[in-house]
Each structure stands twice: as structure tokens, then as C-alpha cells.
């Protein structure tokens, strides 16, 4: 499968509006680079109504199967709002580097983010195991 450009993102109107509100209330601090990356993604994303979002797009609360590029390791992550984050269970805040890197990508896209140690990680979105909109949940 071809790799899509990193800047190609599609968001639901609802996710876009909620994330804009979330960022408006986020104070400056250690996550500033991630917040800036998420702001850029929001500013440049294609928007679609929840009912029209393709099933191969990572939306909020989508369960995503990632394959890490160099080690061929598989990982399942779910981008979520900060209050629902449980990294040990795979629920990663959208304000984290990996959470913001995933949002709006399609199956086949390459997500790139930096770890807290400063290492760059690249992982392909191999599959979407669950997407709320594809299951009929348009307001999650």
C-alpha cells in the first residue's frame, strides 16, 4: 500500500470543533510543540461530516493497528481526550505526540512522532480495528 503524505488528514466536523475548543483551553507548557503540531493539523485538515467520514480514517476513539517501521512491532492505540487517557491500556491523549500524529490519517499512512527522549518513531497505520462513525456513533 502506498504511503500517504504526512500532511493529508481528514477530520470530522465534530472532532475538529471539539479539538479547537480543547486547544483554546490548553495552557502553554511542556506539550507546546505537540499542541502546535495539532493546531497545524487542524488548520490544514480536510473536514467531513461524521456520517460521511470514510471508514479508513483515524478519528477520535478509533482503535488503530500500527506497525512500527524499523522493528516491525505491532501496537494497538486509541487517540482520545486527555481525561480518558490510559497509555498502559492503549488510550493515548490526542495532546500527546503519538495521539496528535495519528489523528486524521488513513490506513496506509505513515505516522511520525518524537518520544519524550527525543527519538523519532515511524509507524504505518496498518488497520482501523474500530471507528465510532463506521459503527454508527456520530457523537462520541
Task: Please characterize this protein's 3D structure.
This protein has helices at residues 13-24, 32-44, 97-102; strands at 10-12, 46-48, 63-68, 74-80, 91-93, 110-114, 120-130. Helix content is 22%, strand content 27%. The chain has one domain: Transcription elongation factor, GreA/GreB, C-terminal domain (Chitinase A, domain 3), CATH 3.10.50.30. The N and C termini lie far apart (30 Å). Mean pLDDT is 88; it is low at 1-6. The chain is built from three helices and seven strands, in the order E-H-H-E-E-E-E-H-E-E. The protein has 140 residues and is α/β, with parallel strands linked by helices. It is globular. Strand 3 and strand 4 form a beta hairpin. The strands form two sheets. A five-stranded mixed beta sheet has the order 5-4-3-7-6. The longest helix is centred in the first third of the chain and has 13 residues, at 32-44.
Summarize the structure.
With 140 residues, the chain is α/β, with parallel strands linked by helices. It contains three helices and seven strands.
Please supply descriptive tags for the structure shown above.
alpha/beta; Chitinase A, domain 3; 140 residues; disordered N terminus; 22% helix; globular; 5-stranded mixed β-sheet; two-stranded parallel sheet; single chain; 3 helices
Strand arrangement across the biggest beta sheet: 5-4-3-7-6
Write the CATH homologous superfamily: Transcription elongation factor, GreA/GreB, C-terminal domain
Total individual domains: 1
Arithmetic mean pLDDT? 88
What is the number of helical segments per DSSP (H or I, 4+ residues)? 3
Q: What is the second-level CATH architecture? A: Roll
Question: Could you say which structural class the secondary elements and strand pairing correspond to?
Answer: alpha/beta
The CATH topology? Chitinase A, domain 3
CATH domain class name:
Alpha Beta
Share of helix, binned: 10-25%
Q: What sequence of helices (H) and strands (E) makes up the elements?
A: EHHEEEEHEE
> How many extended strands?
7
β-strand percent reads: 25-35%
**Rg on CA atoms, Å:** 14 Å
- Major sheet details: 5 strands, mixed
**What would the principal axes of the Cα set say about the shape?**
globular
Low-confidence stretches: 1-6
- End-to-end CA span: 30 Å
